[in-house]
Amino acid sequence: MSSQENELRMFKVTWRIENFSYATQKDGEALLSPTFVIDTSIKTEWHLELYPRGKMANGFISCFLKRAAYDNGPANVLISCKFSILDEYESEHFIFQINNVLADRENFFGVSQFASKDDILEHKRNAFLPHDTLTICFSMWNAGLSQSTQCEIRSLFGIEKRSFSWIIDKFGERRSNEGWSTPIPTTSNQPFFLRMTFAVSDESENEGKISIGVQNYVNWSIFVTCKVSVVDEDGNTGFLANDEHLFSGKETWILPAFTTRGKLLARRSLLLPNGDLTLRCEIALSDGIKINCIESSTYGSHSSETGHLNVSGICTIAEDHGSLKDDLYCLYVEKKLCDLNLKVGDAIFPVHKAILSARSSVFSSTFNVRGEAMSSEITIPEMDPEIISKMLVYIYSDTLEDLDWESALKLYSAADKYEILSLKRQISNYLVSRLTQENVSDILVLAESYRDAGLKAAAQEFIFVHDREIIPSPQWKRFVNSKHKLAAETMQYIYVKRMKLD
């Protein structure tokens, strides 16, 4: 069997996480997949770590690959891998690829800013959370795989739903500043000790502002959604409050309410028959994962994804299954129908104006301004031909190839200059995944210079986690001397967060 065929062997994991919106993990807390064994000549063990509320970058879901602390494999294994999220049609999005890295037992590999939580849970929920199921696709390939394998993993957050009526008798005759509470009923044997609270503030303040709360009496994480409606005398319901909350332990959660005692009294005949207020309460809660298992493994089949991976820097497409991305990349590699040359130093890159315009607003503006008068060659000054080559590979294939720390920094600058935002975001993810105590101050300066809020937040969070080692270091002292304002802002971030935790 040829070495190229070996390269195309792949270990693929499809991880389906059901009831994902009820995830009980806090910020910086991971959901771990079951451990899976990569079938190479010397077996190695791995698992995926998914951070539903982010690892180091607020507002983003994070995903990483971690090798088991003890297995029978060598100390270092050369791997290439890819992370993505599947939509309702099983198409890949939020693709992040790592090529030719040495994986040891200490470090993790992946992407901190994998996908925006708002996109997944709200704006694009129908596409990426069909039936409230998030599907992570992970692929790994190297020359040591003895056969291709497809692994199906299923994780399920358990949910208990409770619905009940709560009658507050003689509500119209009660005084302000009075409160009520009731236990939330259950028929299960789960130890969810929750109570609903209902309170009315003084009349002089917002006509008696209504506060609805949920009290948790257990010391572990519980995710709760709560909807409260007012029931009128005809049995119809009117919305009062609706929200969700992750309890980290014993605490009281106050929902935002949308009415007042005065407004309820103004409609006394309809909403307060016999003076009683009837509330309809709908509660759904989860205390964590109930199923987490490998459901099936298929051996010896070659993944249809093989043609989508940039495994050797050449255009490799499975016969009769080329995607649009594959075809565009072949146009670039084979230099077909090019209508423009980019001159970078002594290097010439034949390209297509239409494709560059679609991927870069800067190229689009340049071509539109020059119009018909534009020559067939453009010179790009003060740029490294190798970096432009990597940028063009990404433009045509959505793939980052042979990235290291120095080239990532240069490519980040090029992505910013030509306003290729998806490339800039992917390199930002790469930099975050490789933060160290020695380079984090440099990344903080980079993020500030390019106004990258996500990268800046991730760097500051890394400093917060490792402040005892970083703050006394020579690198940090040099940073403080040269960047007083940014250093002060970061120290304030650490102080405020520490105060909140305390």
From TrEMBL:
Q: Where is the BTB domain?
A: 338-404
Q: Which SMART domains match?
A: BTB
Q: What Gene Ontology terms for biological process does this UniProt record contain?
A: protein catabolic process
Question: Could you tell me what this protein is called?
Answer: Speckle-type POZ protein
List each copy of the MATH domain by range: 10-140
Q: Which domain of life is it from?
A: Eukaryota
